Amino acid sequence: MGSITLALILVVIFWGDYQDVVTEEQAINQQHEQLSHDLSDYIQGKELLKEVGASFKALKAQGFYGDEDRLALVEALKRAANKLKLTEFKYTISPQHKIESAGAYFPAELNLLETTVIIEAGLLHDADLISITNELSSYAKEAFIVKSCQLTREPSVNVTELTKNVGLVCKLGFYNVKNSEVESGDEEIDLGDDI
User: Fold this and answer.
1) Contact between residue 135 and residue 176 where contact means Cβ atoms under 8 Å apart
2) Rounded to the nearest 10 degrees, what angle do helices 70-84 and 128-139 cross at?
3) Which of 11, 55, 77, 95 is most open to solvent, judged by the fewest CB atoms within 10 Å of its CB?
4) What does the DSSP 8-state code read for residue 146?
């Protein structure tokens, strides 16, 4: 009887040790799964940061992020007028101003800025308006929209000479984004090429 009792005690001890090992193995497996999940999230996050970084670099190269390039804007307007041979071409560029209501999800550390340009031109035909916007979108670095346009037909159309047949007055909004003014002693964030 004593050997059966000893065997039962040993079985209980080994069973207890076995249960501890199984519990520890389950904990290790859960920890491994969590680490695998975290590593996967990290890799996906790193890839997302690379994509966002590439998009940011493209926006910066296009002039959408950073300082306004007024000279490039003037050159784009002149090239569009010259390429389309626009008569009576005039433009007015307003001072750049901050859009105060850029949206609830627009980051507070960035400013959305707008420059309004009014162009006046004599067109050969109304389809030249599309050509102007296409030229400006290919030349102008900043994103822009046509805010309003007014086309007026001349009373008499001349088909034998290159003269103004349609008058155009358009208001365009050119946009760019830059960091908010930094406090003295603070530095502007530069995402650089390390992304």
Assistant:
1) no
2) 140
3) 95
4) E
> What pTM does this model have?
0.59
What is the Cα–Cα distance from 115 to 97, expressed in whole angstroms? 7
- pLDDT tens-digit map of 3-15: 778 777 777 788 8
Question: Which residues lie closer than 8 Å to 87 by C-beta, 6 or more apart?
Answer: 121, 122, 162, 163, 164
Q: Give the tens place of pLDDT for each residue, 170-191.
A: 999 988 888 886 543 444 444 4
The CA–CA distances, whole Å, from 179 to 80, 174, 183 equal 30, 17, 11
Task: Give the C-alpha separation, 145 to 69, whole Å.
Answer: 17
Q: Is 131 exposed, middle or buried (0-12, 13-18, 19+ CB in 10 A)?
A: middle
